[in-house]
Amino acid sequence: MNNVVLAMPREADFTQGASGILTIDLGALQRNYRRLSKAASPAKASAVVKADGYGLGATTVSRALYAEGCRQFFIAHFSEALLLRPDLPADAQIFVLSGLLPGTEIACATNNIIPVLNSIDQLRCWSNTARAMKHTLPAALQFDTGMSRLGVPPEERAAVAAALKNSSYVNIMFLMSHLAAADDPGSDQNISQLAEMTRAANEFPGIDLCFANSGGLFLGADYHGVLVRPGIALYGGQPAAEMKEPMEPVISLDVAVIQTRTVHAGARIGYSGTHIAEKEMRLATLAAGYADGLPRSLSNRGAVYYRGVRLPIVGRVSMDSMTVDMSALPKGTLALGSHVEVIGRNQTLEDVARDAGTISYEILTSLGQRYTRRYR
Ligand SMILES: *Cc1c(COP(=O)(O)O)cnc(C)c1O
After folding, report:
1. Does the reported pTM lie above 0.90?
2. Could you name the active-site residues (predicted)?
3. Do 230 and 344 lie in a common domain?
């Protein structure tokens, strides 16, 4: 009987066969955290790691930031907190921004997860849970200061203040609110939200504040309180339109060429033939599409790069692939398995977002699970 031995490369190159390689530079993430911490000082910097750490891996990102001294982590939903909790040491505090959902109270309390209370009902519920468990429970208390999204509305504040006086079971760690236009330092919405936050703080004397997101951090110390909540700036997104010194990029993305071809003038390219070749063109089809976080709005607009040469996207972006014009490269440069740059030295995350008509947040959180991830 013959033993069939499958040939395996002795040192398997893990990028082999990868449709794309998403490189995540944890050192850059840590340097961004250090820079934000310094800018916030004497306030402390937390980390917002919702949506799987803005798509980069909540556990890996949080552990890297914990190693830099970060102890407060904000996620959006209770389910995310439950997943992250076992991966962080007990002294890491995990806050749930979306509030306290009915039925999660006991699990929240027993798993050392801290809710951001967004209404008097949530406060009452948390207080009842604490009373039943016969010990105080921590919480953050969020106010709506003008975004009309989450938080205690102004007209409910007096009732909340009264409820807190009567209930010694909930320990409010800080008062929170979220800025709607912090990426625009010139917006008067920042000033009016700061004024409303100051009014709210005066109604709850002696309790610390937690106000600024990434953009808010750069609006100045008035917006800092004792704890800032940066998200996007940690991951290399730019917190404001005009940044003198941009945040350090954290990700780069390279995708594989899966076919090359030469087409003649008149050839239709991609779904619905939205691009028709005007002359002979050399094309490369790439192994990433809108299911990999490269939005369909990049069709006939965006580009990728190879050794500094811009290769425009031609035709529609498909679910799993897209086609670029590589006519600017010498013949034979790209072949099956070559990698081209989508995000990197030549094109930033912000550039791709701008071409797609969206924001870096949406690109980051859409990158998906099909790329091979390489943490550095
Ligand atoms: C997402 C979020 C943040 C982080 O915002 P960035 O703009 O990414 O810095 C902070 N606070 C709240 C309440 C959020 O929802």
Report:
1. yes
2. 50, 271
3. no
CATH of the domain at 85: 3.20.20.10
Q: What is the pLDDT of residues 216-275, one digit of tens each?
A: 999 999 999 999 999 999 999 999 877 888 999 999 999 999 999 999 999 999 999 999
How many distinct structural domains can be found in the chain?
2
Residues 303-343: pLDDT tens digits?
A: 999 999 999 999 999 999 999 999 999 999 999 999 999 99
Pocket-forming residues, ligand 1, beta carbon under 6 Å: 48, 50, 97, 178, 213-215, 229-233
Residues 342 and 207 in one domain: no
For the question of residue 66 being annotated catalytic, the response is: no
Mutating to test ligand 1, I would choose from 37, 46, 61, 74 the residue with most ligand atoms within 8 A of its C-beta, which is: 74
Same domain for 167 and 87, yes or no, is yes
39 in a domain, yes or no?
Answer: yes
Q: Which of 50, 223, 290, 305 is catalytic?
A: 50
In terms of residue numbers, what domain contains 57? 26-235
